[in-house]
Amino acid sequence: PLGRQRAGRLWGPSRSRCGGPAGAMGLELELEPLFQAWSYFRRRKFRQCADICSQLLKRPPGEQAAWSLKTRALTEMVYVDEIDMDQEGIAEMMLDENAIAQVARPGTSLKLPGTSQGGGPSPAVRPVTQSGRPITGFVRPSTQSGRPSTMEQAIKTPRTALTARPITSASGGYVRLGTASMLTNPDGPFINLSRLNLAKYAQKPKLAKALFEYIFHHENDVKNALDLAALATEHAQFKDWWWKVQIGKCYYRLGLYREAEKQFKSALKQQDMVDTILYLAKVYLRLDQPVTALNLFKQGLERFPGEVTLICGIARIYEEMNNISTAAEYYKDVLKQDNTHVEAIACIGSNHFYSDQPEIALRFYRRLLQMGVYNCQLFNNLGLCCFYAQQYDMTLSSFERALFLAENEEETADVWYNLGHVAVGIGDLNLAYQCFKLTLVNNNDYAEAYNNLAVLEMRKGHIEQARALLQTASSLAPHMYEPHFNFAILSEKVGDLQRSYTAAQKSEEAFPGHVDTQQLIKQLKQHFAML
Questions:
Q1: Burial class, 30, CB count within 10 angstroms (exposed 0-12 / middle 13-18 / buried 19+)
Q2: Which of 2, 97, 374, 442 is the residue whose CA sits 20 to 30 A from 449?
Q3: 145 Rama class: left (phi>0) / alpha (psi -120 to 50) / beta
Q4: What pLDDT score was predicted for residue 195?
Q5: Separate counts of helices (H) and strands (E) for the chain
Q6: Is the bond preceding 61 in cis, omega lying within 30 degrees of 0?
Q7: CB 353 within 8 A of CB 136
């Protein structure tokens, strides 16, 4: 069979914060520059704010308010929301010592999602990642990848593919984020952390909080941030929930998940906050305890009914556990609370598309277009929906717009691949061949395109080329069943029964419910019995 069409996934907006006023202000003339700096801060013009604060700090004596405001401005320039920022590298995956059970029960682990429990589409219809999860309708840090089963496979995985985890570990990514401090201050660091008396600052709560965020986000010095947070929470007599959350964040960064869990639980007892629930759920997901995370979210919904981030968190977990129908129900609940939620609309749309309801999917994607989402992935999806809903007049124009809006070669490759499917659908195999070739020009690691080119070569009778293409496809994407099955069929036709049987077994392992593979294995066993 041909590989399935891939609907593009929409990128989510990053979360950001707006800060409040930073220091006391009077009506005196000499405080006017500080007022101007504060105004820049409120308008998110952090560079100008930091420059004015630098000039103020040169005057003797240095203003505490200016110091605090500059600290916050520099922090906001590189701020990344810890709740959304989460990527596991190879080091975290393959050297994970926090495994609860090596062989988890079905439906209790994200590492082994197993077969579809919620009646979702099978791998024959909906593409899957390396870990066996269906591809989602929305790109999030946690869905950009599959979990390689072996170290060899993890290292072989192409780095450019959108379904591959980054080669560097998460800590490496944080180090690169931390180097932003060099850019924001060409003269050197604003605060020399090695000479700071943390105990003194811990006794000034207002300054301590700004300083902690600066150390944690801007300097990326988790150890010093943890020391400051520990001293500050001690000074607050362990009654300030905010410091407990920050200590939990530090422990999470350092990989001490159980200690982080204790801090977040303690903070929740003192002050019920949605953010703390999200942090705690993140800890449970990293410990591979999705059921505990689900229960936590549901308890949170009892205290914060209708909270969109909690409902969305439940939907994401069900989707990752391959329970597509339940996930879709929760995404619909999200839309009842917030009818402009891009992630929910995109996921429901992709679910309808893969459930053979392109007309309904078209309505959801059109809604995104009306909301102002205007990117390559959306027009790619609109083109596919139009084609399968038999609205041929709009198909090619949507794909043309998608090609025009493509920002990188991977996106261009996706569009050409889908155009190849359209060409196969209208029976123009020469056009399909050209489209799949153009896919590989843009992305040389596109396993589905290799598989489909092999099918076209088989139709032309070019057996050796087809075999080489299928071997490339199966090595690039061992989690796909199509290259293995096609290779098994091809080998059986030329009489190479042993290779055919090996490939058929791999196909069955990738997709246990595939009837054609089971019939082929049965035939081959009969051949072997006769020998």
A1: exposed
A2: 374
A3: beta
A4: 79
A5: 27, 2
A6: yes
A7: no
- Helices in 179-307 by DSSP H: which ranges? 180-184, 198-202, 205-213, 222-235, 241-253, 257-270, 274-286, 290-303
For position 301, what pLDDT does the model report?
96
What is the rounded CA–CA span in Å between residue 100 and residue 288? 8
Q: What are phi and psi of 282, to 5 degrees?
A: -60, -40
DSSP structure string for 376-428: HHHHHHHHHHHHHTT-HHHHHHHHHHHHHH--SHHHHHHHHHHHHHHHHHHT-
CA distance 233 to 245: 10
Share of the chain above pLDDT 90, in %: 59
Tokens of residue 453, six digits: 């080119």
d(CA 206, CA 202): 9
Sign of CA pseudo-dihedral 248, 253, 254, 256: positive
pLDDT digits (tens, 9 = 90+) for 413-458: 999 999 999 999 999 999 999 999 999 999 999 999 999 999 999 9
The pLDDT of residue 196 is: 82
188 burial (CB, 10 Å; 0-12 / 13-18 / 19+) is exposed
Q: Is 13 exposed, middle or buried (0-12, 13-18, 19+ CB in 10 A)?
A: exposed
CA–CA gap between residue 8 and residue 476 (Å, rounded):
20
C-beta atoms surrounding 392 within 10 Å: 12
CA distance 380 to 411: 9
Q: Is the torsion defined by CA of 458, 157, 116, 449 positive or negative? A: negative
**Residue labelled with tokens 């009654």:** 239
Higher pLDDT, 60 or 67: 67
Rounded CA-CA distance 378/389 in Å is: 16
pLDDT digits (tens, 9 = 90+) for 121-147: 677 777 777 666 677 777 765 554 444
**Domains in the chain with CATH codes:** 33-78 (no CATH), 445-530 (1.25.40.10)
